[in-house]
Design goal:
The protein is mainly beta and 185 residues long. It is 5% helix and 38% strand.
Length: 185
């Protein structure tokens, strides 16, 4: 396993060691001891899966307000996505900056996103399955989203005419949201 830093220090790409032969392949999708050697000591409590039927489906930008914020470890088990993390921690040197990574069943990469970030992804193929671990349970009362196309954030999703849920279509702009993340807390 190796971990690669992104332009936002706290967001990392995790690349498992894949063992393949004439039968197929094998890899450890999660190993807490190995992740600890890279400074990732998160205790995950819930796994979530999503399925998106059509290429161009966009889910995000989502987060849970503090103190129910979630650290996430995301992978794409079928198809391919562009996964995005946006720093929403007021006072952070990377506040409102975003990073993206292509996650796919082929590359088997993971994206580690700590608390204080909004998360979203767009499907680059049809029939996509995404699996992610979180370190806080889902809290409906604290579930929030910000517009995927908020000009203050400026994520380049690389698509036009995204397929959106009603929730994501009506998400507020960041300036109208009640996001409460503070860098260092």
């Amino acid at each position: 396993m190796k971990v690669i830093e992104t332009k936002i220090k706290d967001v990392r790409i995790v690349i498992p060691e894949v063992f393949g032969d004439n039968r197929g392949w094998f890899y450890e999708s999660y190993n807490s001891e190995k992740l600890k050697t890279f400074g990732i000591e998160t205790v995950f409590v819930q796994d979530n899966r999503s399925f998106s039927q059509k290429k161009g489906t966009l889910r995000g930008l989502h987060f849970q307000k503090a103190p129910f914020a979630q650290t996430k470890l995301i992978c794409c088990t079928r198809g391919e996505i562009l996964d995005v993390a946006v720093d929403l921690r007021k006072g952070s040197p990377t506040y409102l900056q975003w990073v993206s990574a292509v996650l796919s069943e082929e590359n088997k990469h993971f994206l580690f996103i700590p608390k204080g970030f909004a998360h979203g992804f767009v499907t680059l193929t049809d029939n996509v399955e995404v699996l992610y671990k979180v370190d806080e349970y889902y809290s409906k009362e604290n579930d929030r989203s910000v517009r995927f196309d908020d000009p203050e954030i400026g994520v380049d999703w690389g698509i036009e005419n995204a397929v959106l849920s009603a929730k994501d279509e009506s998400a507020p702009l960041l300036k109208d949201s009640d996001v409460n993340f503070v860098f260092g807390e």
